[in-house]
Each structure stands twice: as structure tokens, then as C-alpha cells.
Amino acid sequence: MKKHKIEVMIPREDIKRKVRELGELIEKDIKDSDNEVICVGLLKGSAIFMADLVQRIDHPVKMDFMSVSSYGSSMETSGVVKIIKDVDEDVEGKDIVIIEDIIDSGLTLNYVKKFLLSKGAASVKICTLLDKPYRRKAEVFVDYVGFEIPNEFVVGYGIDYAEFYRNLPYIGKVTLLD
């Protein structure tokens, strides 16, 4: 791992407040649904965010996970999405809320949304903690956005650098040192 420093970009209290707001928005949207609701977290980055978020939804929801990759071992997307772990739940006729940690290119989310709809999901919405909309390579509508951030490399609250720093309770900006 290259030498680096981490500066707090989004403090823990701001994240807690935003997670509460997102939970309330999702609950408002799903409260009148006659369908089962499944929150599908994209591993590994969304795990902490999803755990906190579903506790803020006062409506019965199921939790499931997918593991997908378009990055391989690179820091830039390959454009090819690979499903490593599919959902365990049958999504046919269900309302799905995809929970993501950060969206940049949109390629992965675009693919996952189409994939879940092709499996018969009644609806698919997307919730992300962090959004970098100016990095889009695929058009994807994000229903619930926590924070729009600049094109910075970030870690914390589930997001990693070489699998480290997921445990930080805040979002931090990583600066590589010479």
C-alpha cells in the first residue's frame, strides 16, 4: 500500500443524520406497497451502510446481498460486470431497493438493476450513500442519494483502500504521499 494520509470529509454525525433521512424517505415510498420489500446490499462496501439504514425503516423488509465486480484488481472499471454472488431470495413480484456505498461510472448499478428486473422484480430502486454523478459512463437513475461528492478517493463507513479502512466511522479523503 502506498503512503497516504486520510482527512475527514464527512463526519460520523452527518452520516448518522443522512442515514436517518434516507430511511424515512424509503419508508415513505414503500409503506403502501402490497409487495414484499427486499433491500439488496452490494458487497462488501454497502454492508455497514445497509445495516444502519434498514434499522431506520419502520416497515417489514428482507435483507439480501449480491457481490458484483466491474473492477477486477484495477482502480478503473473494466466495463464488464461479473456477478460473483447472486441474491438468495426469489425477487419475482417483489419491490427491490439496491443499497450501494458509492456510485461513480454507473455501469455496475445499471447492470444489476436490469438483471433484477429480468428476474421478475416488480420494481427496483437505488439508494447510495455517496454519488459521483460527473463520473457516469452509463445512465442510471438514483432514487435516494446521501451525499454528492467530488472526484476524490474516499474510505470509511464500509468503503476500503486495499481492504483496509472499512471500519472508520466517517468518510475520509485519501491523499497519496510521495
From TrEMBL:
Its main location: cytoplasm. GO terms for biological process: GMP salvage; guanine salvage; hypoxanthine metabolic process; IMP salvage; purine ribonucleoside salvage. Pathway: Purine metabolism; IMP biosynthesis via salvage pathway; IMP from hypoxanthine: step 1/1. It is found in: Cytoplasm. InterPro entries: HGPRT (IPR050408), Hxn_phspho_trans (IPR005904), PRTase-like (IPR029057), PRTase_dom (IPR000836). Keywords: Cytoplasm, Glycosyltransferase, Magnesium, Metal-binding, Nucleotide-binding, Purine salvage, Transferase. Its cofactor is Mg(2+). This is Hypoxanthine phosphoribosyltransferase. Its EC number is 2.4.2.8. SUPFAM superfamilies: PRTase-like. Belongs to the purine/pyrimidine phosphoribosyltransferase family. Residues 15-161 form the Phosphoribosyltransferase domain. Pfam families: Pribosyltran. Signal peptide: none annotated. GO terms for cellular component: cytosol.
